[in-house]
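Model: You mentioned two targets. I'll fold them one after the other.
Researcher: Yes, keep them separate.
Model: Target one:
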Amino acid sequence: MSLRKFRRELLVIIAEATLEKLLSEDVKRLGAHGYTVSDVRGSGSHGVREGIWEADRTIRMEILCESAVANEIATEVMTKYSSNYGLSLYFSEVDVLRPEKY
């Protein structure tokens, strides 16, 4: 059996947890069908984020969608939030099996 695969974009946003509600509203409004959020910890240019207390929490939001939608979301997130919040964004091309979900 050969599976038919469909190309989509994976946009990953690493951000301060304070942004979760705002990001989820933006992502849905801009055309993504859904997203997945995880609590994460790490270290980077903004220092160590251990997530021990509420203001130190970081999230990882994953959005699978069409490339144009991913670009629009990334542009809006960078425009609205990058000057006041710690953010990292990256893209990957992925293949999915159920394209209607993304």
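Model: Target two:
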Amino acid sequence: MVRRATDARSSTGAWYTPDHLVDLLVAASLDGIRAPAPTIRVIDPACGDGRLLSAVISTLKAQGVEVEAVGCEIDPTTARATRSQLDGSATIIEGDALEYPWERSSFDLVIANPPFSSPLSRRGPSAVTAPGSPYADLATRFWDLALSLAKTDGGRVALILPQSILSSRDAEHVRRNTEAVCRLLWSWWSETPVFDAQVTVCAMVLERSGNPVPIDWTGIVTDRLGLPAVPEVLSVDGSIGQRARIRANFRDEYYGLAGSVVDSGSGPPLVTSGLIDPGVCLWGRRPTRFAKQRFEAPRVDMDVLSDRFRRWAESTLIPKVLVATQTRVLEAVSDPDGSWVPAVPVVRLEPHAEVRPAEIAAVLTSPIASRLMWAQAAGTGLSPKSLRVGVRGLADLPWPAGNLDDAVSALALGDINACGRLVHRAFGIAEDGPLSTWWERQLPRREE
């Protein structure tokens, strides 16, 4: 019974809000709220069992404020139960909020814990088209809806959202729309999942305003983690993307390699993310897993590969830098001889002719590179304290204007801390400081 209920909630994205988070969000959303009319209009377009609406109504009525409350719930049984429980204090609409003909810009407060599931798991017209991307999460679409429902002058939007929405590509359009019309009043983030769905979430209260204020979205996470500030001034000469072609492997390559990886023979070594530490490849020194198998020193048997994937594997055997994709700080290693095949999902950077792979690896092995990646990608990792490193994020990282020879030498000698400080020198940043201290604490323990 429990499992069946969990499966049903997972398919619809319906994970009910714990009481402590209800209290936090309602208190923040009503703090200092102003409504020109004697009645405050409130809506929850994904009301579920009505606990957010119930808390808002009881709080406002205790303050002597009249409330006109509306909720919408797609599940008929839940809608009927919520209507009965709220006992006439709110109008509960049964249907899909994303398809309902709402009166726009008409509510003083829009509050919701919207579904987190993919729209591909949702029935009906709203499953087909989503702004920004056909794979945009339903939470993004509800965020878009909430903005449109809030009054343009002082209307508030209070949402619980998956953490990944703060920096995901598919939510970029709604973040830009929000920045154009809102200011951030309050935010919250937890390192631990608060739902049975094991989804790490954030919460925010926004206010529509004619004078919007720029919003640091990833700061909602990085401020809570205590990450040091990014230096205001950097000595920069372009970007990494101007000095290398950056590529990621995909599912096709994963399945193409599966079955061709062995612990013997003379094929090129296969390097997984788990074998990459800052400045060093641990192939042959640390066991790893690929395609659900454990290997001591995995190699690719090129003769087993199909023609297509043999050509792909051969194309990777060039001078490059490999970057692990789920880490606390950037972990990159240089392959100057082009000896290794990158596993999925390792990212590879193929330097242009005038750039040495060791220079790119040195730049990535620095506090500033990791901190800037956190500024781009906080909330995208598999765990709250990890980064999901992607092609675009690496391409956007700046390149220092100063000389990198000393940093490259330090990295070659295995002195990771010195490499980071010397890259900072090339950027015109103080070599010692809170940024370096933070980074050095996050580095993985070196294996002798």
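Researcher: Noted. Anything on target two?
Model: Residues 41 and 154 are 12 Å apart (CA to CA).
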